Amino acid sequence: MNPLQQFNYNPWPELPYKDFASTAYLLHMVTQVIGKLKLTTPFEPQWANVPLWINSRGLTSGLIPYHTGVFSIDIDLIAHKIIFTSSWQSMSGFKLDTMSVAEFTQSLFNLLSEAGIKMDINLMPQEVPNPIPFNKDTEQRTYNDLLANAWWRILVSSYRVIQQYHAKFNGKTPPIGFMWGTFDLRDARYQGVSVPTTGVNAEYIRRNAMNETQIETGWWSGNANYPRPAYYSFTYPQPKGIENSSIKPAAARWDNSLGLFVLDYDDVRQSKNPENTLYIFLESTYKAGSELAQWEKELVGTGKPV
Question: What are the mean pLDDT values of the chain's consecutive 10-residue runs (306 residues total)?
């Protein structure tokens, strides 16, 4: 028997934005607080050192060095717990539930203090409109554990498909990661050509992210301006005429307001073969962007060992 069937596991669940919005806000701030701890790790180009990673129960910080050891923080989205572990045998945690961002931040830093860790982070959220410092965000945010788990299952299913796409690229491509600033799962392919960081791209975060030609794709759960989950793809710098490109599947389109290709998650979820539908979108949008931007065809291989 397929173990997914045995445990009644739906890999492509519904995720209504309106119902998920409060939980999404809390999870976004949770991932930001944890993610900012990773800023202490050595910087890698295009912020490749800072994403959170998907694991078999949720998300993890991965290893964060501290003095002569390491620690990690996991967001368990099956048991709905924050779990702290360290190489000096400390292990603790707390329940992830309806709470304020300030409560979460205090609870997390209490764990760190009890384990002998003294670290400071910038308490201002990044890449969000109207940011509120974590320690001053005292509004209670509803946490729906069923929708939080559904969100994570979509991340897992998306990751599995994106991994097949990711493996075929012969150029520079960092591991598929969860970007806590923009709250999305992303895969980026780089051509290896520098781009001047001027104007809006001179801002600190962007000048270290948008300094090379790239084609990025990923999934996010929606926001107030686009209130539904969707997959996206963009080529940077944007080639002239890319908005007129023919892409697949039929439900995919160019969104003028977002300035990128979009495929709504529900169109993937409701298709006969969600994995294939998503994969076609990834390949089709890369083809459109790379051809117009005149990327070398040799950058994409078979994804299989010789």
Answer: 69 98 98 97 93 98 97 98 95 97 98 96 96 98 98 98 97 97 98 85 81 97 96 97 98 97 98 98 98 96 70
Same-domain check for residues 132 and 149: no
Instruction: Give the domain range for residue 111.
Output: 15-136
Helices (H), 131-239: 145-166, 204-207
Whether 169 and 285 share a structural domain: yes
Domain boundary among 99, 115, 136: 136
| Structure tokens given for 182 | 């923009």
> Are the C-beta atoms of residues 38 and 50 closer than 8 Å to each other?
yes
What is the number of alpha carbons within 13 Å of residue 274 lying toward its C-beta? 19
Q: Residues 124, 157: one domain?
A: no
- Element containing residue 265 per DSSP (H, E): helix 265-269
> Distance between CA 248 and CA 250 in Å, rounded?
5
Q: Tell me, yes or no, whether 7 lies in a domain.
A: no
Burial class from Cβ neighbours inside 10 Å (0-12, 13-18, 19+) for residue 229 reads buried
Q: Classify residue 199 as exposed, middle or buried by CB count within 10 Å of its CB (0-12, 13-18, 19+).
A: exposed
Calpha distance 202→221 (Å, rounded): 28
Same domain flag for 245 and 274: yes
pLDDT at 204: 82
Domain count for the chain, please give it: 2
